[in-house]
Structure formats: structure tokens, C-alpha cells
Design a protein that fits this description.
heterodimer; A: alpha/beta; Beta-Lactamase; Rossmann fold; 2 domains; 7-stranded antiparallel sheet; 7-stranded mixed sheet; 12 helices; B: about 180 residues; mainly alpha; about 0% strand; elongated
Chain lengths: ~350, ~180
């Protein structure tokens, strides 16, 4: 894992990290560098401090402390010696570098009219190592298929942070783009449009994706989601739109527009579970509109990524049936009423895997 | 026979002296021209940085490709040093490139200092700040160019004739 980001790190720092045991390096997730404070790594789901001899330690005493000079070199390297070209990234507080690795920054902010314009005196870096787990969506894809259109159905993927949502939609985009449909023959790949506001899905460097997102995929990099979706629909005629982390009001209108235009939308949203997601105003409106045909809840466990699929079309059908049948039952006409409608997240469980 | 050797020797001394004089004069003539070229290529770099938001290594390379020599050579070698990627900062790469390339130009220490000062600020701040530093360097280079022009008008002709005259003096003393 280290070699993927070693080119960013100053030589002294990567030497220290290279002394870590191989098992630690293989599971390396985050390197947290703070100026003149102990060097910390996240590995295999836990945190530890690193001594200059390459040993892990739970207490910060005796840990290696990166110097101010080292931090300056690190910043120069990760901005490619061009801070002026990274103003937007500095405003947002992170930089995405080649390979999709994301570096979070902390320091003193520069304000302009009360809004953050930039960060200077950067003293904290969090290097998050991106890993591209190809095939994570393979088991789930069969349940997300829209047979009538020979494509993927509109899907909303929810999960808490760090559960692999971005990895999941990247893999879905790739599968759809290559046309790797399970158990079907003769279906071609679909044109995919990715609106990648945070440069995480495709990790574009100078407009070219560094992750494999498939041959029929176009990426609108660093573009606000709602605007990007409209631009894509107008100009790139996508059949599937992929967006990360929806939840604002303007996203709702853009997704409605996409669905009306016959484009399948695959989106993710931050939420602990399905109910939390459905409680968010923007997402509730989309669900009421039946903008999504499937819901997926992601959870990462030791065994790997667990995905629970909810068939929203089925749920909507049941709800419609239940409202239609209830007046009849009230009138006492139908003793053999359709089975008691279950609340829809629970109904989803019936289709869950 | 001896007379002939003396004549040939005198001719050689005269020729060499004149040549040295002319070379010196050429250095005086080239200096303002080269400063102007450096200044205009820095202006192109400014466009790349401020309007194009091009990352510095690429900006240097495109600027170097369109610049006249020796400014282009200096910028290109800075870009080359940078692309080695051995963990040095931009300032260190810039300084190494300028110091090694400078003796082969007609430019002198004052403009080298301006260039080195610029190198310690390039790339490490936002675009407004970059613009200010580049403009400041342009103003300073303009001042150096004017000084160089003054020197040129004073010393160019003089050094040309001085070469010949000194050679003549040497010949007279030897005879």
C-alpha cells in the first residue's frame, strides 16, 4: 500500500514508514502527518503511532515527529509545486492526487467575506490510500437489473462513511460500462456519465480518470452534482448517471429531470441505515416520486462488503395495493384482503440478501 | 626573416586583442537583450500560472518551448530538475538550474539575484500572490535592463576600440 503513495512523501518519511512490518503495510489505510507531533497510521481498522525504528506503539511517547520542513516538502509535492492551481481543493480542504488517494488538510483558514477561501499554514495531513476493489458489486448487480430496458435500474445506495459506497458505485459504473451483465447474453454496455464532484469516483488527473471506470464512461470532474447532471443530460446523452453523495435540494430536481429523460440514476447518500436515509427531506421527496427502483444498504464487516437490496418498485406496488384495498376492507367487502402490508423497509428485508 | 616573424606575431596580437574587445562588446550588447527575453518569457509563465492555472512543471515546459535562447534553456533545465522528483523543493531545483546555466549567458549577478528571489516564491502561494511576485520580478528585471542598456551605450564601443588599442600598445612595447 505504501508504494502507491511513496512518491508523495519526503524521503525521510517514507524511509520510516518502509520500516513498518509487511502485514501493517498491507493493511495501511491512512497516514496521518502532523507537524512536530507524533506520526500516526490507521491500519487494519485501528490506529497506532510509529516510532522512527518502524515499530507500532499505542502511546504517542517516543514516536517519530515529522518536521516543519518535511511538511512543507509534502505540501509542495502533493500540490505538484503549484498551490495556485489547487485553490478550489484548498477551499474544500482536501486534495485528490494521482491514483485517487485523497489527502485531507488542516491548518489556518483564510476567510473572504466570511467564507473559507483557502487554507494556509497547513500543519495536518491525512493521506487516505485509495484501493480499487474490482468486483465488489458483482453479487449485487443481478438484483439491480431493469430487464425491460436491458440496463441497470435507478438505484440509491446508502451507508455510513467508510463503508465503501464510492468503491461500490465505481464498480457498478465499470460493470455497466463494460456490459458485464450477469446471466445475460447479448446485452451491450451502456453509456455511463459520472458526475464526480469530489474527484473520488474516477480520481481524474487533468480530466483523465486514473481508475478504470469502463470504456463507455464520461466523467465530469470536480463539478457540482446538480449542474453536472444537467450538463451531462444535455450534452453527453448518458444512459446511466452515477453521482456520489446526494442530499441537497438542487440534487432532487436534477435527479427528477434525469429520470424524466429516461436516464437511470445510480446515487449514494450518507446515512446509517435505510430509515435514516428516507428521513432526509431531499431523499424522502425522491422516494415519494419513485425516482429510484432499488435501494442498497452497505455495511462493511470483517467478511467483506455486505449489501442489502430493497426492491422499491415492489414496495411501491404493495403500498398502492394496500391503499386501494383499505376502503374495501373498511366497507367489509373483502374478508380475504391481500396480506397485511408490511412497512416498506421491512418488506425490503424479504428481498434482502 | 626575423622581421617577418615579428610582423606575423604583431598581427596575431592585434587580431586577438580586437577579438577580445569585440567579444566583450557583444556581451554588453547581449545583456539587455537577454534580460528582455527572460522578462518576456516570465510574462508568458505568468499567463500560464494566473490564467491557465497550469501546474508549474508543465507551465515551465510550455514556456521554455516558446521562449528564445538562452531564457528557454534556463527554464527547461529548471523543469528537468523538477521532473527528477528526488524530493527537492521547487526553490532548490530552480536555484540549481539558474546557477548552473547562468555563466553561459551574457547576464550578470543582479538579474540572477532577481531570478533567484522569484524562485523562492513561485508555486507556493495562491494566484494573486503569484501575480504580485511575478510583476515585482518583471519590474526589477526592467530596472536591470535599463542599467544594462546604460552600460552598453557607455562601454560597447569603448571596449571594442580598447581591445584594438591595448593590442597595439602590447605590439609597440614588444617591438
Amino acid at each position: 500500500m505504501l508504494e502507491r503513495v511513496a512518491y508523495l512523501l519526503p524521503p525521510e518519511l517514507s524511509e520510516v514508514l518502509a520500516r513498518l512490518p509487511a502485514s501493517v503495510l498491507a493493511g495501511l489505510e491512512e497516514i496521518r502527518i502532523r507537524e512536530n507531533r507524533p506520526l500516526e497510521v490507521w491500519t487494519g481498522g485501528g490506529s497506532a503511532f510509529v516510532t522512527s525504528g518502524g515499530l507500532l506503539n499505542n502511546s504517542p511517547d517516543g514516536a517519530f515527529k515529522p518536521s516543519a520542513d518535511m511538511c512543507r516538502r509534502l505540501l509542495e509535492r502533493m500540490t505538484n509545486h503549484s498551490v495556485y492551481a489547487m485553490e478550489e481543493e484548498l477551499r474544500r480542504g482536501y486534495i485528490t492526487v494521482e491514483g485517487g488517494h485523497r489527502i485531507g488538510l488542516a491548518g489556518r483558514t483564510v476567510l473572504e467575506e466570511g467564507k473559507v477561501r483557502s487554507i494556509r499554514d497547513i500543519g495536518g495531513f491525512n493521506v487516505r490510500i485509495a484501493r480499487d476493489a474490482a468486483g465488489v458489486s458483482l453479487n449485487t448487480l443481478p438484483m439491480l437489473i431493469d430487464r425491460a430496458r436491458q440496463s441497470i435500474a435507478s438505484t440509491l445506495i446508502v451507508g455510513a462513511p467508510r463503508q465503501g459506497k464510492t468503491t461500490f458505485i465505481r464498480d457498478l459504473a465499470r460493470a455497466v460500462s463494460y456490459g458485464k451483465w450477469p446471466n445475460t447474453s447479448g446485452w451491450t454496455g451502456r453509456k455511463v456519465g459520472i458526475v464526480d464532484e469530489r474527484s473520488e469516483i474516477a480520481a481524474c488527473v487533468r480530466g483523465v480518470p486514473t481508475f478504470d471506470v469502463g470504456p463507455r464512461t464520461d466523467v465530469m470532474d470536480a463539478c457540482p452534482k446538480a449542474e453536472g447532471m444537467m450538463m451531462m443530460i444535455r450534452s453527453m446523452s448518458p444512459e446511466v448517471l452515477v453521482v456520489d453523495e446526494i442530499g441537497r435540494d438542487e440534487d432532487v430536481e436534477a435527479i427528477r429531470e434525469a429520470v424524466r429523460a429516461g436516464v437511470a440514476v445510480v446515487a449514494t447518500a450518507h446515512a446509517g441505515g435505510w430509515q435514516e436515509a428516507a428521513a432526509r427531506p431531499a431523499i424522502r421527496r425522491l422516494l415519494q416520486d419513485n425516482a429510484f427502483a432499488r435501494g442498497v444498504v452497505l455495511k462493511r464487516s470483517e467478511a467483506g462488503l455486505a449489501a442489502r437490496v430493497i426492491d422499491l418498485e415492489l414496495v411501491a406496488g404493495q403500498n398502492a395495493a394496500s391503499t386501494a384495498s383499505s376502503p374495501a376492507r373498511a366497507a367489509g367487502h373483502s374478508p380475504a384482503a391481500p396480506r397485511e402490508p408490511t412497512s416498506w423497509p421491512a418488506a425490503g428485508d424479504a428481498n434482502a440478501r | 626573416m626575423r622581421m617577418l616573424v615579428k610582423l606575423i606575431g604583431a598581427a596575431l596580437v592585434l587580431f586577438a586583442g580586437t577579438l577580445i574587445g569585440f567579444l566583450q562588446a557583444a556581451r554588453y550588447a547581449d545583456r539587455p537583450k537577454q534580460i528582455r527575453q527572460l522578462s518576456s518569457s516570465l510574462q508568458r509563465l505568468e499567463t500560464e500560472i494566473v490564467y491557465g492555472r497550469t501546474p508549474l512543471p508543465d507551465a515551465l515546459r510550455t514556456t521554455a518551448a516558446s521562449a528564445e535562447q538562452p531564457a528557454g534553456r534556463l527554464l527547461q533545465s529548471a523543469a528537468d530538475e523538477l521532473s527528477l522528483g528526488d524530493g527537492r523543493t521547487f526553490r532548490e531545483c530552480w536555484e540549481a538550474a539558474m546557477r548552473s546555466g547562468w555563466p553561459s549567458t551574457s547576464m550578470r549577478a543582479p538579474e540572477l539575484n532577481v531570478t533567484l528571489r522569484l524562485g523562492s516564491t513561485l508555486g507556493i502561494s495562491d494566484k494573486d500572490d503569484q501575480l504580485k511576485h511575478l510583476r515585482l520580478a518583471a519590474v526589477q528585471l526592467k530596472a536591470e535592463e535599463d542599467a544594462a542598456k546604460d552600460e552598453q551605450s557607455k562601454y560597447e564601443k569603448m571596449s571594442r576600440s580598447l581591445g584594438l588599442l591595448l593590442a597595439a600598445l602590447v605590439v609597440i612595447l614588444m617591438v
